[in-house]
Amino acid sequence: MCGIVGVVGSAPVNQLLYDALLLLQHRGQDAAGIVTQQERRFYMHKEQGMVRDVFRTRNMRALPGTSGLGQVRYPTAGDADSQEEAQPFYVNAPFGIVLAHNGNLTNASALKSELFSTDHRHTNTESDSEVLLNVLAHELERASRGLSLAPAQVFAAVEGVHRRVRGSYAVAAQIAGHGLLAFRDPYGIRPLCFGRGEGGAFMAASESVALEGTGHQLERDVAPGEAIFVTLDGQFHARQCAPAAQLSPCIFEFVYLARPDSALDGISVYQARLNLGRALAQRVISTVPPDEIDVVIPIPESSRPSATELAAILGKPYREGFVKNRYVGRTFIMPGQAVRKKSVRQKLNAIGSEFAGRNVLLVDDSIVRGTTSREIVQMAREAGARKVYMASAAPPVRHPNVYGIDMPTREELVAHGRSEEQVRQLIGADALIYQDVDAMKRAVGQLNPAVRQFDASCFDGVYVTGDIAPGNAACIPRQGDGI
Which of 20, 40, 350, 465 has the most CB atoms around it within 10 Å of its CB? Predict the structure, then answer.
């Protein structure tokens, strides 16, 4: 997953973009970039690393202008070690365009060939975000040929993007001398919202927390298939650019990815996780008698709301049994199983007094590869737990995700091809309780009846874009700059 932000204001925006990226840091820790626009010139700085490390005082001073973009990158694929694949990306024609992308294109390879053979455009990296930028540039060139660029031409270009591109994409782009463009794929898989701040400053961002934390008032989410265009003098334009848009947000955003203080598509992430804990409690009660559970302990941090609600329903004490080292990145995001396994004990440490002689129910937001769960169960036993039960607020992850989450192959998924009993044995728990798929959808969906379906493909194998067969999902090239 990546985090993107775009701003149009009347004062310098470099600090504002930096602050917004800090609030979106959880969405990507591999690289960060900011581009600003002054008059018709772009100023850019991007590198591998965390926001606070990438941008020094000298870099910030070199980013003048009253509009700009920012991105924090989490690579689902491509070359994670390549600084060239940090975003935003730039192309000089037509007009000059910079783009930041959150998502994953499922037809990137075909588009790349098409760009070269038909559109006569060149891409220089393995990133599908550069492919998306060049498709947008080509469609802008077609729409504006012989005309001055106006909102109608911008929206016609986005319509062309929707016709050609498949997969998930939330985009913020700047067109030199004209304004900020933000749009979302026809299914709204990846989140994007916008709002205004003091003096009418406009901001679009992946999550509402980026707006609220920088003093902007959330107005609404960008609708699936919709495009927003804000001119450099603040004129706002919006148009639906996809003929058959249907909101199907990624449910994994609510399970794990988004910050709990965000609201996505009218749904509070925190409340969604409370609801998931309530639904999970019913599964726990039917599997493990509550009188056999002494304490409920979350695995920090995303599972805390679910664990809190679950403990309340069971009538059991909620305790913080693990202390997290905040200076180690997410193990889910870290590449390579060996690195993840080693990092678990660097990341978490058990408080022995909360485990000694007790039957503990550990609650996690999800179980993806199983490596972390196995290590944590072992840590609980070493800390003196008599029995260790594991509950997951999400169902078994059995299918690859092709929309930007780093789940590229079935072989990496502990639940693929295994029964729940086999997974339990593998992670070493005395009992394993998973959330039910339909219960998960109900728990989140009841918070906004307008959201009638979710992309839950990694759980149920149903790919909402309709261009992926479950048996072929693992064959999708790892080309995204990710969710």
Answer: 20
Q: Which overall architecture, per CATH, does domain 270-452 show?
A: 3-Layer(aba) Sandwich (3.40)
Report the residue count for the chain.
Answer: 483
- Encoded tokens for 151: 């909102």
- What is the tens place of the pLDDT at every residue in 41-75? 999 999 999 999 999 999 999 999 999 999 999 86
Which parts of 202-291 fold into alpha helices (H)?
208-212, 252, 269-287
* Cα 32 off chain centre by: 15
Active site residues: 2
- Candidates 78, 34, 39, 174; CA nearest to 479 is 78
Query: Of 238, 131, 242, which is closest to residue 182 (Cα–Cα)?
Result: 238
Task: State pTM to two decimals.
Answer: 0.93
* Per-residue DSSP letter, 334: S
Domain ranges of the chain: 3-248, 270-452
CB burial string 434-467: b at 16+ within 10 A, e below: bbebebbbebbbebbeebeebbbbbbbebbbbee
The two three-digit tokens of residue 188, written as one number: 């709204």
Return the DSSP state at 407: B
The CATH-assigned architecture of domain 3-248 is 4-Layer Sandwich (3.60)
